[in-house]
Amino acid sequence: MNRKDLARNPVLPPEHHIPDGEAHVMPDGKLYVYGSYDNQRDFYCSNIYRVASTADLKAWEVHDIALRAEDIPWFNNPEAPHYPGVDWSRPTPFMRERMPELVSDSPEEKGVKFRTTDVPALLYAPDCAYRNGKYYLYFCMSDESEGVAVSDKPTGPFLHPVQLPCGQIDPAVFVDEDGSAYYYWGQFCARGVRLNDDMVSFDETKVIEDLVTEEEHFFHEGSSMRKIGDTYYFVFADVERGKPTALGYATGKTPLGPFTYRGIIIDNADCDSASWNNHGSIECVNGQWYIFYHRCSRGTQLYRRLCVEPIQILPDGTIPEVCMTSQGAGEPFGPGEKIQAFRACELHGSIYIAPEENGSEEALTHIGEGDSASFRYVRTEGTFHRAVLEYSGRGNVRILLNRHVVGTADLPDEERTEVQLTEEVQSQEQAELTLVFIKPQGLVIRSITLF
User: Fold this and answer.
1) Are 165 and 200 in contact (CB under 8 A)?
2) How high is the pLDDT of residue 114?
3) Exposed, middle or buried by CB within 10 Å (0-12, 13-18, 19+), for 178?
4) How many domains does one find in the chain?
5) Which domain holds residue 438?
6) Measured between alpha carbons, how far is 123 from 326 in angstroms, rounded to an integer?
């Protein structure tokens, strides 16, 4: 792959699935992304963290293991402190609609806490902050415990884990310009507190409850804090559209609120038919703000992959919603440039992105009648006259640019077919390329190239 190609979504090699990305430019000037690490079909996340980094948003490196769940001494230890997690005695509308089996109004069952003790030791979404020469990695686990470990390097290994006096998921950390640090966590409602100067403790009596809530802010989980000018931006998984596939945000004038809901930044609902959640962050890189988010794959809620889109911060402080793209922080795909099928950013139908059965290369698989896959964006220099598809199986394909059919062809039982476009496509800087499939028979799409 060339460097231009590496800037596109998803940004990491297909074998690395790093969701829940918290992106931070650290003192060495590089961008580091801290997230979970999906590597199994049965559970979210895994028992390890790996940090991804880049100097230019083009060439990415996935580093060695930063922390292992087996190194956390308190996991499911009956003698370790346990702190309350989700309050199931106060069900939100989302809990009632989506999790009715866990919600009860009977007095004897109120307050029953749902615990994931039936899953192995898993490390859920983390965050990291630099202060006074050290890097502090805040993490949570599948027993609802939370903690922090420390390293001399932004990539770890992170050592000497300390349990924090709180429980639930999705910790976030923010260090303000005056050096004060704040910690956030929670699901359905977010909590926040100022950290002590040691960065590994806080005063439990000073925790602020309900910083953002489902009822007022559409908050689901995944807290993330940034400051732009004199405004604090609280980014989170947003359920305004029925499930937490969107990243929304609220703003305030202090790091502990109050916060006003402002809207949605991005929604990954159409990345896969099974898409369920989102979790990410915003970060400024070389003067440009970006949103870091994830998209699932393989027809599951899992195998989530790190993606990046540029965003705008308008003078009034709002962030216009952006759509998922294939180009990401890179450029549109040009004439003669092979577009790998796994870079499709919007899918409809039973189709999804997964490794081929006979190999590790990711492709468009499980294609059904009328399914479609879109790539944003391609650009022309002059005109497009033809397209070349690499695939297996057979069927019929319609090629659309900006939702206008420009070519139709049968795909015989071969591995490569050239399609003559029936309409000449004039020069465009950005065009949406869509493939629509008719009567597919075991069809798997590996790539398309426009000429």
Assistant:
1) no
2) 46
3) exposed
4) 2
5) 339-450
6) 29
Which domain CATH number covers 71?
2.115.10.20
* pLDDT score for 42: 87
| Amino acid at the residue 141 | M
d(CA 210, CA 195) in angstroms, rounded, equals: 18
- Contacts for 217 with CB less than 8 Å, ≥ 6 apart: 236, 248, 250, 259, 261
CATH number, position 436? 2.60.120.260
In a domain, 84, yes or no: yes
> Encoding tokens for residue 251?
């703003």
Whether 190 is covered by a domain: the verdict is yes
* Co-location of 266 and 350 in the same domain: no
Which of 273, 295, 310 is the endpoint of a domain? 310
In a domain, 30, yes or no: yes
Categorize the per-residue pLDDT at 112 as very low, low, confident or very high, splitting at 50, 70 and 90.
Answer: very low
- Do the domain assignments include residue 331? no
Point out the least confidently predicted range of 37-46, 195-204, 301-310, 354-363. 354-363
**Residue pointed to by tokens 């990491």:** 12
pTM above 0.85, yes or no: yes
Cα–Cα distance list, 294 to 288, 371, 413 (Å): 20, 22, 35
Same domain, 162 and 236: yes
Mean pLDDT score, 196-224: 98
Task: Report the residue count for the chain.
Answer: 451
Q: How confident is the model at residue 111 (pLDDT cuts 50, 70, 90)?
A: very low
